[in-house]
Design brief:
The complex is a heterotrimer of chains A (about 500), B (about 500) and C (about 100). Chain A is α+β, with helices and mostly antiparallel strands and about 500 residues long. Chain A is built from 16 helices and 15 strands. In chain A, the strands form three sheets. Chain A has a nine-stranded mixed sheet with strand order 3-6-7-10-1-11-12-13-14. In chain A, strands 5-4-15 form a three-stranded antiparallel sheet, with no helix packed on it. Chain A has a two-stranded antiparallel ribbon with strand order 8-9. Chain C has a domain at about 5-45: Orthogonal Bundle (Histone, subunit A). The chains are: A alpha+beta (about 500), B alpha/beta (about 500), C alpha+beta (about 100). Chains in contact: A-B, A-C, B-C. At the B-C interface, helix 11, helix 12, helix 13 and helix 14 of B face helix 1, helix 2, helix 3 and strand 3 of C. The structure holds magnesium ion and zinc ion.
Chain lengths: ~500, ~500, ~100
């Protein structure tokens, strides 16, 4: 299905007529050893149906038992988001039939989430700070995975049958739901992306999840609605699923705004529905509309007893919170002596963790920053991937920086080494070796090249000997050319002057 | 009449452990009895001959080698309700949808029985998913009451109670959600105990109503029930609702009670358990049993539990609601029956076709009631109100137990009714659980002990004894004292008056 | 309060994934009506100040250590399946997107 441009309203026009309202639901898979309600492992990528037991397979008679570590993670996430922690709460059953859900109900939390009423502050590219309200964070379990066979696309539509793997069924999830985000205007897509980015950084700092959007350990559903400018009553929203990267979050929101704008301007009505984001086209499409609205028939999970985290426990968990991302940014700015702009560039490039890791591996902050924010960011951009997804590690970058600092590599050579690492040619030292990139620091070799150059340009040699030191540049240039740039120009210059002084 | 099949579990255990008789002989005697009469009674859905004999041999080897036996019941045969998962043995819950399903795991109760050296003879018939009071709702045929083959053996655990009354097993396991252990015990003249909720693990017990279900012992004597109780009870980390506390000393209490002294015990007669639905012969037998308790020295007073009147309607909201969710997993995707997987039918269609074909009428009816009671707009008026009734019932119990040690009532309003008599009147069927449901609602323990025969039809009546949570020893003591006194007065155990069954050729 | 129509029964059956027949619609409509009339009595008691009881036992905070336990083998998992392909459960085509 393709969309004609007539189906989309020009973005500027959307903003002239409407105010967008966002609501973001993020599902995070916890990186616990075991599942939410049973002792099965949670490792990604195992053979199908090999990480299951009677409990997560929903076999008749099996019963859940709550993973205490998952509750701990949920409380820590709640605390880091500034939430209140419920002194008493329960799990509830969300009843609906779906083949990837073994019990045909999801054990989740309903009106008694473990954490509620918090906020997350984020900084946009230009330094604007946006405070996003957090409605709730609650615990639930993941579903299994279905593979759709037959039909053209591997998508659910047109498939002849499906194959189910329940390894993921029962993996602990935390669902984090924002309050409605209003007043963002044109920046709604940017805010959506910044929110998911900030949340991801926070969860990473808490060390509670792999936060890999590409592997589904962090998933975002974007609720978008439009209301006429100045109105106070929200419009009908759509919920876009399958938004699997930070970039997609931004694109999906922007696309929904334009699509809804077009529908509303044409006098149409927005259907409250679930939409599917297509990465390849950047568009959303409606799912199969249900004949009747879902009625989940929530009720307290009778197989589990209530949770009542004691104040002592909550306070003890508060002491385990790591330095939070915004605190860390403040500290890094001081430690590395960065201007506001430098810090912002660093953060916007998504390079803070990488630079810090590179510094930890021994590089100077400035050098580490230069590599990631300048050279590697461009590379990531042109490849269309996240900085962290580049096939080079902070310790590899630190090694290259060390080689430069030791004079083993020039900046130009260093870039070639980095290119070699990115091309999969191995560790920096191996690339230096195989590409023959080491600085020619062997003075004997340099003397030979200098003598050749002096012999080739006797008039220049004469000038130098006559005291015209600036004429040395021509000889240095010739030597650099002869050594294919692998010599340290400063050293060559010293040797040329030394040679002509005699 | 074989000695071995008509002995108590305690006697059999003593003889097996002393080497006077082998467990294999005892087991074989019961297997023979099943082969001879079960085509008439139909208590069993599956008989595990090989497994039973293997378990019996293991006990005999221990005895022969002079090793300590695994438990006081090692070597004694038992009939297991087909609602407990048994590894490599079919578990059907009396339902077409689970026909031929073989679990890859053991329920905790199953495991404890095996570890105790108890010989599991097979799996007993039941109302489908334990929904019923007559065992007529089994997809695999009715079970008959050995006292009168035209009558029901109670339900849902009619297979377990009938197997005891037919001398096919000296011990059985049942589950009690609204009375499914006590009501069948009552109408078959046997003993049935619903322990405190959380006293016996539910892990591997196929759920009907999670907040009410409780497995428990069934036997022909109070002491046998107590011995079995101690084998299956106790904390289980695989059941979050399992209570982490010592098992009440029920065997000691049963032995103590058998001395026949109930002085100092305060017994409360619940005023509300009488009225138009009660058969006069049942009330007569109950009054006589209260008289016996008084003669044994108990102080008997009348107590009022006004909210018990609302237990039945609340139960018929809570149980179907939880069931509608618990039974959602039977969807033809991963195990069990699959119907309609053809002509390009979708998964949704196959689920609906399978559930339509695989569930019996009572199960479907309750799923619908539960779906209704939980749906938005009705939740508060139905499920929510029913949960409040639970609170009120628990408060009634608390108040009553402030005044007395145990409460007593008839177990059921009537004796065993005729097969087919109530199948078209669900509400009349539901009344069979009138007296048993309050204990499920509050999670408190309760049991039924034979209280003689009803005057008008000569069928067994049960005396229900209820105790506060985790105070099972109180009711076992009273039950044992009553049992001894009643048997003495009647010149023998009630169970020996079961008519002799015709042995099939 | 209840007066269950055929349409309501059909809606409940859809929610519960039961492909009820036309005859059952009529039968269940009548029976559900009777049952719901009789259980509606719970509305007579239990005022606002009565807390609901969802669990009969007063347990709290029952948690398990985050330790891996052996599960089932793929063979055991698939042994009872109506249909299997490539180590997975094979099921008919799925119409709707996930809720
Ligand atoms: Mg959710
Ligand atoms: Zn598992």
């Amino acid at each position: 299905m393709s969309l004609s441009t007539a189906d989309l309203l020009d973005y500027d026009e959307v903003l002239e007529r409407f105010d967008p309202v966002l609501g973001l639901e993020v599902h995070v898979e916890l990186s616990t050893n075991t599942k939410m309600f049973c002792g099965c492992p949670t490792a990604f990528g195992a053979e199908p149906n090999t990480q299951v037991c009677p409990v997560c397979l929903g076999l008749p008679g099996a019963l859940p038992v709550v993973n205490g570590k998952a509750v701990e993670s949920a409380i820590r996430i709640g605390l880091a988001l500034g939430c209140e922690i419920a002194p008493w709460c329960r799990f509830a059953r969300k009843n609906y039939f779906y083949p990837d859900m073994p019990k045909n109900f999801q054990t989740s939390q309903y009106d008694e989430p473990i954490a509620f009423n918090g906020s997350l502050s984020l900084e946009l590219a230009d330094g604007t700070v946006v405070e996003v309200g957090i409605e709730r964070a609650h615990m639930e379990e993941d579903t299994g995975k279905s593979l759709h066979v037959g039909g053209a696309t591997g998508r659910i539509h047109g498939a002849e049958h499906s194959l189910l793997d329940y390894n993921r069924a029962g993996v602990p999830l935390i669902e984090i739901v924002t309050k409605p985000i209003t007043g963002t205007g044109a920046r709604a897509p940017e805010v959506a992306r910044a929110y998911v980015t900030a949340l991801r950084d926070l969860l990473r700092a808490l060390d509670v999840s792999d936060v890999r959007m590409d592997q589904g350990s962090l998933r975002c559903d974007a609720n978008v609605s439009l209301m006429p400018r100045g109105a106070t009553e929200f419009g009908t929203r759509t919920e876009t699923k399958n938004v699997n990267s930070l970039r997609s979050v931004e694109r999906a929101v922007r696309h929904e705004m334009s699509r809804q704008g077009a529908v509303l301007v044409a006098g149409g009505e927005i259907m409250q529905e679930t939409r599917h984001f297509d990465e390849s086209t950047g568009t959303t499409s409606a799912g199969r509309r249900k004949e009747t609205s879902e009625d989940y028939r929530y009720f307290p999970e009778p197989d589990l007893v209530p949770m009542a985290p004691s104040a002592d426990w909550v306070e003890q968990l508060r002491t385990t919170l790591p330095e939070l991302p915004w605190e860390r940014r403040k500290r890094v700015q001081t430690d590395w002596q960065l201007s506001d702009l430098e810090l912002r560039d660093l953060v916007n490039a998504g390079a803070l963790d990488l630079v810090a890791a590179t510094v930890d591996a021994g590089a100077a902050p400035d050098a580490a920053r230069a590599w990631w924010v300048n050279y590697l960011s461009q590379e990531a951009n042109s490849r269309g991937v996240e900085l962290a997804e580049l096939p080079i590690s902070p310790s590899q970058v630190a090694r290259v920086a060390a080689l430069v600092a030791e004079g083993e590599l020039t900046n130009k050579l260093a870039r070639e080494v980095v290119d070699g690492v990115l091309a999969g040619e191995g560790e920096p030292d191996a690339v230096v070796e195989s590409r023959g990139l080491a600085v020619v620091s062997d003075d004997t070799a340099l003397y030979a090249a200098i003598d050749d150059a002096l012999a080739a340009q006797p008039d220049v040699a004469e000038k130098i000997r006559g005291g015209k030191v600036q004429a040395a540049g021509a000889i240095v240039g010739a030597v650099m050319k002869a050594t294919k740039g692998q010599a340290d120009a400063k050293r060559v210059r010293e040797l040329v002057l030394e040679r002509c002084a005699g | 009449m074989s000695n071995l099949t008509h002995s108590t579990a305690a006697d059999l255990a003593a003889k097996i452990h002393a080497g006077e008789v082998s467990s294999v002989e005892v087991t074989q005697a019961h297997l023979d009895r099943i082969a001879a009469i079960d085509s008439t009674v139909h208590a069993f859905l599956h008989v595990d001959t090989e497994g039973a004999l293997a378990a019996a041999r293991a006990v005999d080897e221990d005895v022969a080698a002079g090793r300590p036996v695994a438990s006081p019941l090692a070597g004694v045969p038992l009939a297991l309700k087909d609602v407990f998962a048994t590894k490599d043995i079919p578990t059907t819950c009396g339902s077409r949808i689970l026909e031929n399903w073989v679990p890859p795991y053991d329920a905790t109760v199953t495991r404890r029985l095996r570890e105790a050296g108890v010989v599991v003879l097979g799996k007993t018939n039941m109302d489908e998913f334990a929904m019923g009071s007559s065992t007529e709702n089994s997809a695999f045929g009715v079970t008959r009451n050995p006292w009168d083959l035209d009558r029901v053996p109670g339900g849902s655990g009619g297979g377990s109670s009938a197997s005891l009354a037919a001398f096919e097993a000296p011990l059985a396991i049942g589950t009690d959600t609204g009375g499914s252990i006590r009501q069948p015990a009552s109408v078959t003249g046997t003993v049935g105990v619903k322990p405190t909720y959380g006293g016996v693990s539910r892990y591997g017990l196929v759920a009907f109503s999670s907040s009410l279900d409780q497995g428990g012992p069934c036997a022909r004597t109070v002491l046998d029930a107590a011995l079995l109780h101690e084998v299956i009870a106790g904390h289980d980390p695989f059941d979050s609702t399992s209570i982490d506390a010592p098992v009440p000393p029920v065997v000691a209490a049963a032995r103590e009670g058998a001395a026949g002294d109930l002085r100092g015990v305060r017994v409360g007669v619940v005023r509300e358990f009488t009225g138009e639905w009660y058969q006069s012969g049942v009330l007569g037998a109950f009054e006589r049993s209260v008289e016996v308790l008084r003669e044994l020295g108990a102080e008997v007073v009348e107590v009022s539990c006004p909210n018990f009147d609302y237990a039945l309607p609340a139960y018929y909201l809570i149980a179907p609601s939880e069931a509608s969710s618990n039974l959602a997993r039977f969807d033809a995707m991963r195990y069990g029956l699959r119907v309609g997987d053809e002509r390009g039918n979708s998964a949704e269609q196959v689920m609906a076709l399978t559930r339509e074909a695989g569930f019996g009428e009572e199960v479907k009816r309750r799923i619908m009631v539960g779906t209704y009671a939980l749906s938005s707009g009705y939740y508060d008026a139905y499920y929510g109100q029913a949960q409040k009734v639970r609170t009120l019932i628990s408060r009634d119990f608390e108040r009553a137990f402030g005044e007395v040690d145990v409460l007593v009532s008839p177990t059921t309003p009537t004796t065993a009714f005729r097969i087919g008599e109530r199948v078209d009147d669900p509400v009349a069927m539901y009344r069979a659980d009138l007296c048993t449901i309050p204990a499920n609602m509050s999670g408190t323990p309760a049991m039924s002990v034979p209280a003689g025969l009803s005057e008008e039809d000569g069928l067994p009546v049960g005396l229900q004894i209820m105790a506060p949570a985790l105070q099972e020893q109180r009711m076992y003591k009273v039950a044992a004292a009553y049992e001894v006194a009643r048997d003495k007065a009647a010149g023998g155990a009630l169970i020996n008056r079961v008519p002799e069954l015709e042995v099939a050729r | 309060m209840p007066n269950i129509s055929r349409e309501e029964v059909a809606h409940l059956a859809r929610l519960a994934r039961l492909a009820v027949t036309e005859a059952e619609l009529d039968k269940f409509a009548g029976q559900l009506d009777v049952i719901l009339q009789s259980v509606a009595r719970v509305g007579e008691v239990a005022a606002d100040d009565i807390p609901p009881t969802s669990h009969a036992v007063p347990l709290r905070n029952v948690f398990r250590a985050d330790e891996i336990r052996p599960g089932l083998t793929q063979e055991q998992v698939l042994a009872g399946a109506p249909s299997v392909e490539d180590g997975r459960f094979r099921v008919p085509r799925i119409l709707g997107e996930q809720a």
